[in-house]
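#lab-general

N.A. 3:47 PM
ok so I finally got the sequence cleaned up, no stray characters, all 273 residues accounted for. can someone with queue access submit it? mine expired

B.Y. 3:52 PM
send it over

N.A. 3:53 PM
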Amino acid sequence: MIRYSELDTIKLIHSIRETMADKKTHRLAVITGGASGIGLGTVKRFLNEGYEVLILDANKEAGDKSVNNLKSDTCNVNFIHCDIAKHEQIESIFQNLLNNNRPAHVLVNCAGISPALNPLHKYSVEEWHRTIDINLHGTFYACREFLKLATALKINEGAIVNVASIMGTRASAAQASYGASKHAVVGLTKSIAQDYATMNIRANAVGPGVIDTPMNTELMKDDDVMQYLLQRVPLKRVATSDEVANLIYFLASSEASYITGSFYPIDGGYLAG
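B.Y. 4:20 PM
back already:
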C-alpha cells in the first residue's frame, strides 16, 4: 500500500490548486483508477465529449504518462497521485474542490484490484482486507466525498457510475474477496440512487466481464483459461476498455436521465447463460 506522508499532502494540495487554476465552463468528471485499463478508456471518452477530467490513481508513473499524452489545448485533464483506500487523501482532494468552488458533476469509480485465486481457507487476512479496502471502501470514500461536494455546492444534477463486475451478481470459485467486494459495490450503488434521487443525482453500476486490460494481462496469456471463459461468452471474444467506457459515458450522460439504481452487465452475454 502507498504510504502517505506530510510531503505528499503538500504536493496534493499544490496539484489540485494547479488543476483549478484555469477555471473553464467545462463540466468536471472525477475518475478513479483513470491511469490505465477501463479507467483510461473512460478518461478519453469524457475528454472527447468536452469534459474536464481529474484522474485519481495510485500509479504515479501511469498517471503522469496519461496526462502528458492526453493534455492539449482542447483536452483539460489533470492527475492526482493518491491511494483510494486512504479516506483522508480522498477527503482532501474534494475539500480542495470545495474551497475553489469547483463542482464535479460526474464520478466514475474504476479503481480496483483482482487478487489471486484461492479457496477461502487459504486467503490471508491481509489480502482479504486489501481487496475490500480498495474495491469497496475506496468506492465508498469517493462516493461520500463527491456527494458531500454536490450537497455543499447545491448542484442540480449529477451522476455516479461504479465499476463492479459480473461477479457483482453471481459467484465464482476461489474469488470470495473479489465477489464480496463487487456484490457490495452494487448494493452501495443502489442505496445511493435511493438517497440522492431528490437531488437529481443518479447512480448506476456496470458489470464488465472479461476485458482486455492490464489487470487481465496474465489471465489472457493462459490459453486454457481463455478457452474455458470464451466457451461461456456467446460473442466468443473479450471486450475492449473502450466498449466499457462507452457504456459508462452513456449512463453518466443526459441520454440516461431516467436511469438510476441499476446494474448493467457488459459481458458478451456471459450472464445470459
